[in-house]
């Protein structure tokens, strides 16, 4: 496989590609990027174990270019996405007057004044996903215990982010939408960035690289090792200062110690 990487992928420093996986054959799941003279490659299909790195030589021009400017993504998978249109059974949350939705908002008071929609068919609170000010997808949270708990309607929005006020450039990486909103409302100007799962993808890294000045990774308490892994990956791919917050509970539960530690890290990042 290393021979395939070296001989087939002729990448310049900082360049990334996405294509079909040479091992499992899955469509458009294989990515590779050249960083610091190494090609880092990975297949994002869960059943495929293809990943690794290959050392290559950097030219003088590549080294000069690398040290003069930060790494940036050279592609944007969502650039040409169509504007998302809600299905007819997804209606305005305020108009729904639904007991399930009211109890959900009472459980999570931070959701007051959020632009929630309601899925009358599957009983879900639906959150819009925007990119560049344009609606590209929506994600719904089951209110009656249905599986899956979270459902993406368009299947193309890979993250959800929320910020109150003018962004200060600090991203807090969390797993779910409610946690991202919690960060935004408890820490004004800080961006809550939900990865909508447990994987850090190229789309996530592209947005972080383009818009963040520093990052804090605050995944659920049972995912500390993954938080550390994500922190290293963000630093490697973007060059940004990145910290890990070891939380006692999911950040959306707003445990006093977790919120205090989060504020300390954010204040330190601002300074």
Overview of the molecule:
The protein has 271 residues and is an alpha+beta fold. The chain is built from 8 helices and 14 strands. The chain has helices at 2-8, 60-68, 93-96, 99-107, 177-186, 202-211, 224-238, 256-270, and strands at residues 16-19, 30-35, 38-43, 51-55, 90-92, 117-119, 124-131, 134-142, 150-152, 160-162, 170-174, 191-194, 214-217, 241-244. A hairpin with a 7-residue loop joins strand 3 (38-43) and strand 4. The longest helix is centred in the C-terminal third of the chain and has 15 residues, at 224-238. The radius of gyration is 20 Å and the shape is globular. The model is unreliable at 66-78 (pLDDT under 50).
Topology (SSEs and partners):
Layout lengths: L1 H7 L7 E4 L10 E6 L2 E6 L7 E5 L4 H9 L21 E3 H4 L2 H9 L9 E3 L4 E8 L2 E9 L7 E3 L7 E3 L7 E5 L2 H10 L4 E4 L7 H10 L2 E4 L6 H15 L2 E4 L11 H15 L1
Parallel strand pairs: 11-12, 11-13, 13-14
Antiparallel strand pairs: 1-2, 2-3, 3-4, 5-6, 6-7, 7-8, 8-9, 10-12
Strand segment count: 14
User: Termini, distance in Å?
Assistant: 45 Å
Q: What is the overall silhouette?
A: globular
Radius of gyration based on Cα positions? 20 Å
Per DSSP, the total helix count is 8
Write the CATH fold name of the largest domain: Dna Topoisomerase Vi A Subunit, Chain: A, domain 2
Query: How many structurally independent domains?
Result: 3
> Which regions contain 5 or more consecutive residues with pLDDT less than 50?
66-78
SSE string: HEEEEHEHHEEEEEEHEHEHEH
Which sequence of strands runs across the widest sheet?
A: 5-6-7-8-9
Q: In this structure, how is the largest beta sheet organized? A: 5 strands, antiparallel
